[in-house]
Amino acid sequence: MAYTEFPTYRGRMEYVCLDCGARYPGDSLLYTCPQCGGVFLLENLDFSKLKERSGAQWREIFDARCATRATALRGIFRYYELLAPLMDEEDIVYLGEGLTPIVEAAPALRDSVGIPFAYKNDGQNPSASFKDRGMACAFSFLKWLCRRQQWDEVLTVCASTGDTSAAAALYAAYVGAPLKSVVLLPHGKVTPQQLSQPLGSGATVLELPGVFDDCMKVVELLAENYRVALLNSKNSWRILGQESFAYEIAQWYGWDISTLCIFVPIGNAGNVTAIMSGFLKLLDLGIITALPRMFGVQSEHADPVWRYYDAPKNARHWQPVTVAPSVAQAAMIGNPVSFPRVRTLAERFVEKGGERAFQVMRVTEQQIMDAMIMANRHGHIACTQGGECLAGLINAKLLGLVTADEHAVLDSTAHALKFAGFQEMYFNNTFPPEYNVTPDTKLANKPELLLPESARQGRDAATFTRMGAEAVVARLGLQKKG
């Protein structure tokens, strides 16, 4: 079979509870363990069959698929065998997600930070965030499951701070019947740009007072008692799709990632979970020979994972926190549902890569905004979570945790335009005091009105053009051609 044809390999998937170890078949809608309430990871019972090929052969296969014209293999399912190898080609949902660019830092920015790094711009996914990776996998699974079960209607639900709802609504709108989309948002905690997305996709948008954690509890209650498809990070199929981030980084760097440091905002902890899981699979198959180092990053306004790992190893205790307002809205989560996955996979990561393989950084709101503005002033399109990662890298360098002979890859989870409101508050110095952000005037930027509105009135076009040009010349100090 040609490498660019749809794979014939199929696996058998099971949910595995990380608390009690119970197992359940993968062809069902399960999000937490019915026995103990723990969260799942999905396991392919036939993963060992993939070892019949060498790491070099897998590298050749994935590299060959770069040239495919087969829609089902053009996005995250380029790595079909590593993700959710249950579905047939007709089940795969592809909206252009995945394969987002890795852009090296502008030279001046790199020199300022003092370490080479790149942004992986996941804001260049279809709904402008990394959540599309998980949704492509979750909705492909739902198509497959609905076809097998002959269901005539399934309600997809999610709680969101913006990006999850945008992605869920987009994919539900594309797939159509039997899927319908409902999203639950914390009132006033989602940017106007993000709110417009599920509304535009036709989802039923419901709001509740409170924060994300409050909305999450509601959708969890719904998922436990009604036949709905939960699309938050508790959905293990979403986590599988997000593993593609790791595979793309490894492939981009020629499958040699031993000197890379990956910085990821933690939020609900699904993405850092998925990325670690992806790298571990590559190592197990010999596709890579060494792990990169993983750095999770949290704002001090929502830092439960940092607090857990900051404690001495023998004194660690998991404790959710009450969040304060954060510019990194997608990371403003005080009780991340995927923390048990983080703990499990971090242990595996450290076992395979050493004690320095996994660490968590904490940054301030001020550092997040300064870093986001600084990055974008150098030609990047980082969101606030991308700013969080750059702030994490800067802090890690100051603490001596990374060195100039390493190379960092920062996860910018969404497009900068989704957070234009925070940029506007920065430039106009209008942040509410609870954010603890004071703009750096060297980074602020505002439009300048060169002429009063009255300058246009009663003048012909030629006169106004001359006046406008003279105002520009005066402002910029232009010299006439010699």
Task: Name the strands of the widest sheet in spatial order.
Answer: 4-5-13-10-11-12
Strand content: 5-15%
Helix fraction by DSSP (H/I, runs of at least 4): 25-40%
* Main structural class: alpha/beta
List the helices and strands and how they pair.
Layout: E1 13-17, E2 23-25, E3 40-44, H1 55-64, E4 102-104, H2 107-113, E5 117-121, H3 131-149, E6 154-159, H4 163-175, E7 179-186, H5 192-200, E8 204-208, H6 212-225, E9 228-230, H7 236-242, H8 244-252, E10 260-265, H9 270-284, E11 293-299, H10 304-310, H11 339-353, E12 358-363, H12 365-376, H13 384-398, E13 407-412, H14 420-428, H15 461-476
Parallel strand pairs: 5-13, 6-7, 6-9, 7-8, 10-11, 10-13, 11-12
Antiparallel strand pairs: 1-2, 1-3, 4-5
What does this structure look like?
The chain has 482 residues and is α/β, with parallel strands linked by helices. It has 15 helices and 13 strands. It has helices at residues 55-64, 107-113, 131-149, 163-175, 192-200, 212-225, 236-242, 244-252, 270-284, 304-310, 339-353, 365-376, 384-398, 420-428, 461-476, and strands at residues 13-17, 23-25, 40-44, 102-104, 117-121, 154-159, 179-186, 204-208, 228-230, 260-265, 293-299, 358-363, 407-412. The strands form three sheets. The protein has a six-stranded mixed beta sheet with strand order 4-5-13-10-11-12, with helices on both faces. Strands 8-7-6-9 form a four-stranded parallel beta sheet. A three-stranded antiparallel beta sheet has the order 2-1-3. β6 (154-159), α4 (163-175) and β7 (179-186) form a beta-alpha-beta unit. α3 runs parallel beside α4 (163-175), α9 packs parallel to α11 and α12 crosses α13. The longest helix is centred in the first third of the chain and has 19 residues, at 131-149. The model has no long low-confidence stretch (mean pLDDT 94).
